[in-house]
Design brief:
216 residues; alpha/beta; 8 helices; binds zinc ion; three-stranded antiparallel β-sheet; 15% strand; five-stranded parallel β-sheet
């Protein structure tokens, strides 16, 4: 099965994509991980990627495409895959549509979470400045306010988790993703999963949506 998973930041997209890959015995292709790996390995591609990111620009479609196409040639990807983080724009979706091995996507699973829930989830996160342990003001508060349970160091809010940053990221996500959703809806490939809930519940909904739709 060839799958795409879409979802806003904080919707648990990566977790659900990994779950789907395991349950369906297909490979998980996460473009974010692949980009970070190239940068870490300092490959020629990685150097081009970090140059773009350092210049404050988006990684160009062609670069991400090169990586995905290369990954699809690996033998373990022949049996199917779940794409996570790609396509991110309608341009990428249109490019996929004319690319061997990517033009026959069978299902696009869109994880839907109300913006208000995402903002509450993300803006309540606290990270330990020493060991990186994560807490949440509401869902898993530390025993002493502002102090890490594990190592006793101070907790802070990562810039990415600040409410105003989350709001901006959600705006960008919706602007870029709506055309993709419309495109795949038109193809009859889109399934929407209610992803507001705990991980296990959302996993069950996701696998059910995918297997129901895939069986048709
Ligand atoms: Zn700590």
């Amino acid at each position: 099965m060839k799958l795409v998973v879409l979802g806003p930041p904080g919707a648990g997209k990566g977790t659900q994509a990994i779950m789907l890959a395991e349950r369906l015995h297909i490979v998980h292709i996460a473009t974010g991980d692949m980009l970070r790996e190239q940068i870490a390995l300092k490959t020629e591609l990685g150097t081009r990627i970090s140059r773009t990111i350092n210049a404050g620009q988006f990684v160009p479609n062609e670069l991400v495409f090169e990586l995905v196409k290369k990954r699809l040639k690996d033998s373990d990807a022949k049996g199917g895959f779940v794409l996570d983080g790609f396509p991110r724009t309608i341009e990428q979706a249109l490019m996929m549509d004319v690319t061997d091995g990517l033009s026959d996507i069978e299902l696009v699973c869109s994880l839907a979470v109300p913006d208000s829930v995402i903002i509450e989830r993300m803006s309540g996160r606290l990270t330990c400045s020493q060991c990186g342990a994560m807490f949440h003001l509401v869902y898993s508060p530390p025993q002493a306010a502002g102090i890490c349970d594990d190592c006793g160091a101070g907790l802070y809010q990562r810039p990415d988790d600040k409410a105003e940053t989350v709001v901006e990221r959600l705006k960008l996500y919706h602007a870029r993703t709506e055309p993709i959703i419309n495109f795949y809806t038109g193809r009859g490939l889109l399934v929407t999963v209610d992803a507001a809930g705990d991980i296990a519940t959302v996993s069950e909904r996701t696998i059910r949506a995918v297997t129901d739709k895939g069986a048709r």
